[in-house]
């Protein structure tokens, strides 16, 4: 406005506002580039609003159809600008994302800027892709879209202290699709009281057997071999109680041993079965779940809406107890040793 030249950057605009103590400045970007305070071109069709607080501090809002960015820029003695840039926070109990009208297939997405920015879709990372069609509601995490970039790794983290910051990464899906623990030989799949029903695998599991990882190698004692021979007589067929409860007569028969029998046979030879990796006993605590209620609350729009809340009550889901189990692969080797002698 003073020199008749076109602004090419926000830095020039802020310098002008300081020189004339202008309090407000608005602009709408077109295809003509104008650079932000990082030196990157602001995409076309963005609305930029600048508020001059005290000729030293400026609040900048940049909005587009895809969202907004806020800056707080502070001038230094050299005339440069130190700034923090952040997206506007969204505060809501429920966030609904919809890109199409009701009745149509939905492709509702949460995307994030990559290191190269967010100027176009090819620069963005697809975080969550929720696809809803006539027969399926699909949730895709991490990408797999021809429009956006994808995650190269996905980490899962938890913290045992609900009131602490930090936490630990527990599991990772790497760029080749392999699921692995974040720390070697640390985490289990399932608990004694929360077991997966079945594991399907094209090949068997692989257990570490490298001599460099073992010590104290010895052959079985005479007492151990007697236990192994006795256990051959305890092999039986049985059915699981939960299977009979749900399937009745259709529940299938299984062949194996009973953990308590294994413990008894070891004891008869003066041995403690729990000194061996063959037998396991796991205790588990009582588990409770939150009891929620519903109530009508006045929303920010002045209308009553149904709200779910924590009643403070807890319902017992599972009583404390213990469960015994057997590592079948070790038991089989143990029994084979008796046959070889």
TrEMBL record:
Domain Peptidase S74: 209-341
Top-level taxon of the source organism: Bacteria
Pfam family, one: Peptidase_S74
UniProt-listed InterPro entries: S74_ICA (IPR030392), WH-like_DNA-bd_sf (IPR036388)
Gene3D superfamilies, alphabetized: Winged helix-like DNA-binding domain superfamily/Winged helix DNA-binding domain
Listed name of the protein: Tail fiber domain-containing protein
Source species of the chain: Escherichia coli
């Amino acid at each position: 406005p003073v020199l008749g030249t076109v602004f090419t950057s926000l830095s020039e605009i802020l310098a002008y506002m300081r020189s004339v103590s202008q309090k407000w400045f608005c602009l709408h970007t077109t295809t003509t580039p104008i650079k932000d305070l990082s030196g990157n071109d602001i995409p076309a069709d963005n609305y930029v609003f600048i508020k001059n607080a005290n000729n030293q501090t400026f609040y900048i809002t940049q909005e587009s159809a895809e969202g907004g960015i806020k800056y707080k820029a502070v001038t230094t003695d050299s005339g440069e600008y130190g700034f923090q840039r952040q997206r506007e926070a969204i505060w809501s109990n429920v966030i609904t994302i919809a890109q199409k009208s009701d009745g149509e297939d939905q492709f509702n997405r949460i995307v994030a800027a990559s290191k190269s920015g967010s100027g176009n879709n090819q620069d963005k990372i697809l975080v969550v892709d929720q696809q809803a069609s006539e027969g399926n509601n699909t949730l895709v995490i991490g990408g797999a879209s021809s429009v956006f970039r994808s995650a190269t790794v996905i980490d899962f983290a938890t913290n045992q202290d609900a009131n602490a910051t930090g936490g630990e990464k527990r599991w990772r899906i790497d760029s080749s699709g392999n699921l692995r623990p974040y720390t070697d030989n640390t985490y289990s799949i399932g608990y004694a009281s929360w077991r997966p029903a079945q594991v399907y695998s094209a090949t068997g599991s692989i257990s570490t057997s490298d001599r460099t990882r073992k010590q104290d190698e010895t052959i079985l004692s005479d007492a151990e071999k007697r236990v192994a021979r006795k256990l051959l007589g305890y092999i039986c067929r049985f059915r699981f109680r939960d299977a009979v409860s749900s399937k009745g007569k259709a529940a299938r028969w299984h062949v194996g041993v009973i953990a308590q029998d294994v413990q008894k046979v070891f004891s008869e030879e003066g041995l403690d079965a729990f000194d061996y990796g063959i037998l396991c006993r796991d205790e588990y605590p009582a588990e409770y779940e939150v009891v929620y209620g519903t109530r009508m609350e006045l929303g920010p729009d002045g209308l009553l809406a149904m709200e779910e809340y924590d009643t403070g009550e807890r319902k017992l889901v599972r009583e404390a107890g213990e469960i015994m189990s057997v590592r079948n692969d070790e038991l089989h080797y143990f029994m084979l040793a008796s046959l070889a002698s």
